[in-house]
Amino acid sequence: VTDKAKKLFVLLGTKQLELMEGISAANMDPQQLAFNYSMLFNMAREDFIATNDTALRALMGEFKDHGLMVSVMQGGGGNEAVWIPLRKDALLKIIQEQKQG
Known about the structure:
Blueprint: H1 3-20, E1 35-36, H2 37-46, H3 53-65, E2 70-74, E3 79-83, H4 88-100
Antiparallel strand pairs: 1-3, 2-3
């Protein structure tokens, strides 16, 4: 994957790890870890990862194709939510490796 795709994964993974704090693994619902797509897009734009929706979706595409990123529509308002379907320990290890390398 490209450097920008890696940066996007680290960005989403870091936010997801923040959401995981204080939630026990037994009580963890993947929907609780979902991050609002609009917020992710704004952060990606601020970090110069993706400047438009098409670019962000292209970066997410490879991860989604391999099941490393999931998105769903939530609620009646058509809000999209995105998350990485990994356990906390696995996600933490990957994020740390990406930040070091």
